[in-house]
């Protein structure tokens, strides 16, 4: 098993040289120097319209096409014709719900979660337009932690009874941006497809939010057997642009084009891409896979993700151990309490009880240090936070410390040191 060489990993990120402790990575990661160079090179040398026959345009066209290939590789999709670029994940899902509208019938059911609203709001609005029914798959208390009501997660047994012969689409997250928990996507899809088929379903599709997943683990849309899947490169060491995978049968059989009527897009991702994405950003994304491949001697993405997962566990364990040790002080981890491969180092907690502390005040203590960035709130997983019992003020939300592979064990110690002061 290859280990991550943290020094060279960090060198690839110019922002990390300052020594600032970036611990709000689930909000957005730092950007690779190579990605920035590619963006600037595109703008300085190939900034023309795509699709013409002159030399520079051919070069630009190829560069933008290589952005689709980079995303294809990260999704493990079969074809670049299954890759859509857009300005944000939120916008991509909104576009998807417009394009799928004609294939949603009144009375059909769409299952959503309380996780990040990008995979909920657009489906709610679609259901309202079409007379479809929204069902919520709630995060429920994990049986392993009977003493912590905030140790919640999405559990397959809670999903099963929601599936009927009318289920048309299940929209869920592969990883929670608050709880840090990873979902067994393949199992969920297999189980749901079997249950729905037994119930005589017309058509069942899955839309999986991988925004909080993609910085930590390898996506595999083919193994997962999902129809739509998306993530944002600004959380995966790239620029502010996002990608969606659309499985070919869904592209051709479920979606109506959002593109101009005279464009021949029936089997092309342009169906979901009304207008060009930011070309320089798309090209910039081509810097992400080579960086990941550079992380281990084998040069494979598989080994890179394995090395990242191992390093991240080393960050997670001391932080969770420290927080579990503060139970009497009123600290409650929101989500899975133990490190392990079912979890990434996105750690949220609240401080309750007689000496409760607002999440905002915990974060202020970090802000006063001036060299550590963490954040509080609901992080757009509004429904998840709003449904926590006993209630927390949804806008004050949780304290979230979110680490990625370029964080170090020394940084975790610094974070714990500040928490020691706050929780004294
Ligand atoms: C889990 C999750 N899904 C979706 C999004 C939305 O991504 P975007 O900002 O690209 O719309 C975020 C952003 O924080 C997120 O954390």
TrEMBL record:
Keywords: Transferase. GO terms for molecular function: transferase activity. InterPro entries: Aminotrans_V_dom, PyrdxlP-dep_Trfase, PyrdxlP-dep_Trfase_major, PyrdxlP-dep_Trfase_small. Residues 22-414 form the Aminotransferase class V domain. Gene3D superfamilies: Aspartate Aminotransferase, domain 1 (3.90.1150.10), Type I PLP-dependent aspartate aminotransferase-like (Major domain) (3.40.640.10). It holds the Pfam family Aminotran_5. SUPFAM superfamilies: PLP-dependent transferases (SSF53383). This is PLP-dependent transferase. It comes from Polyporus arcularius HHB13444.
